């Protein structure tokens, strides 16, 4: 017998749920969610069964201090419902107040402006280190659209779903489900041979216990990265993604990341792209919140480039776009 259970989440201000939802909408993982107005739903496998979590803004709520209602449906016990709620507390960064990070950022004029502009933006985390690793492996060396197609095909192949109010919600597969697949099944869905092997072999290691992801919790960043990169198909970039988005480590510095290096060059007006070592030296004042500084700089650079691209649209192109929009309005 399944049960339903509701929770009320009150993250410390500032907290912008709309930033989180926009991030979901623009992510290559958006296929995992059902998205509504100030509402998100997603299924998870809890205790071997699919469970649906639905979140909405409750009242009273303000943009910087929302009250979030979390409803769990299909859980087989109170404990399983609590487990689903805990997953979302992690994904939504509910228990990670931003004020200490903002106080640290306030010592640098550039970072003070960026954090002010993006105030309330929290890390969007994956539901588990396993999910994060699989998603990162799939995303290696392919564009976002192709990555999303591969991810979606894997989820639909394993076909764990729950039907609620006439809608079907697919859950990200468990290690055991992916471990039961063969390489040819993924090759038929346009996975490369190596990517198919990396995904299935990793899942088999987690399923049989030879890969212990729970042990990562007790490791330092360096120890966890060293553990992960020994596994086939996982390089430093993937390992850093797992620590940042899977475990939610606040102090991870992906110093070799091109996006971070470009952001530092852009916002501090450097005459060259900083090297990995220069990034490490530059980021010494960020200690303790390196993940947040990185996340904010990635976001701010994306927004700056989008604005710059918009400004470079020629007057002729603007007129053409306006004409096209007017014609569509008539249809």
From TrEMBL:
It comes from the Bacteria. The keyword DNA damage applies. GO terms for molecular function: alkylated DNA binding; DNA-3-methyladenine glycosylase activity; DNA-7-methylguanine glycosylase activity. Its EC number is 3.2.2.21. One of its GO terms (biological process) is DNA alkylation repair. Transmembrane segments: none annotated. InterPro entries: Alkylbase_DNA_Glycosylase/TA, DNA_glycosylase, HhH-GPD_domain, HhH_base_excis_C. Keywords: DNA damage, DNA repair. Residues 138-306 form the HhH-GPD domain. Residues 311-331 are annotated as: Disordered. One of its GO terms (cellular component) is cytoplasm. Pfam families: HhH-GPD. Gene3D superfamilies: Helix-hairpin-Helix base-excision DNA repair enzymes (C-terminal), Hypothetical protein, domain 2. Belongs to the alkylbase DNA glycosidase AlkA family. This is DNA-3-methyladenine glycosylase II.
């Amino acid at each position: 017998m399944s049960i339903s259970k509701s929770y009320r989440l009150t993250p410390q201000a500032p907290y912008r749920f709309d930033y989180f939802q926009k991030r979901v909408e623009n992510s290559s993982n958006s296929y995992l969610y059902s998205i509504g107005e100030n509402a998100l739903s997603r299924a998870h496998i809890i205790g071997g069964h699919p469970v649906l979590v639905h979140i909405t803004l409750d009242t009273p709520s303000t943009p910087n201090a929302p009250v979030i209602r979390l409803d769990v449906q299909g859980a087989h016990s109170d404990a399983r419902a609590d487990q689903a709620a805990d997953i979302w507390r992690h994904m939504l960064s509910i228990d990670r107040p931003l004020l200490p990070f903002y106080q640290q950022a306030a010592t640098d004029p550039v970072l003070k402006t960026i954090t002010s502009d993006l105030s309330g933006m929290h890390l969007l985390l994956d539901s588990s280190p396993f999910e994060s690793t699989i998603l990162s492996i799939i995303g290696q060396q392919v564009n976002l659209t192709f990555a999303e197609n591969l991810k979606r095909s894997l989820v639909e192949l394993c076909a764990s779903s729950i039907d609620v109010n006439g809608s079907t919600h697919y859950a990200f597969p468990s290690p055991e489900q992916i471990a039961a697949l063969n390489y040819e099944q993924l090759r038929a869905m346009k996975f490369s041979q190596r990517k198919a092997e990396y995904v299935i072999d990793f899942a088999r290691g987690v399923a049989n216990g030879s890969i212990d992801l729970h042990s990562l919790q007790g490791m330092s960043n360096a120890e966890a990265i060293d553990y992960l990169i020994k596994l086939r198909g996982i390089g430093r970039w993937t390992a850093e993604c797992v620590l940042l988005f899977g475990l939610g480590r606040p102090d991870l510095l992906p110093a070799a990341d091109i996006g971070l290096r470009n952001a530092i060059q852009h916002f501090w007006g450097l005459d060259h792209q900083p090297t990995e070592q220069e990034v490490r030296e530059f980021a010494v004042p960020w200690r303790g919140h390196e993940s947040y500084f990185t996340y904010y700089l990635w976001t701010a650079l994306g927004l700056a480039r989008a604005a710059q691209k918009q400004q470079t649209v020629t007057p002729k192109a603007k007129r053409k776009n306006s004409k096209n929009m007017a014609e569509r309005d008539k249809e």
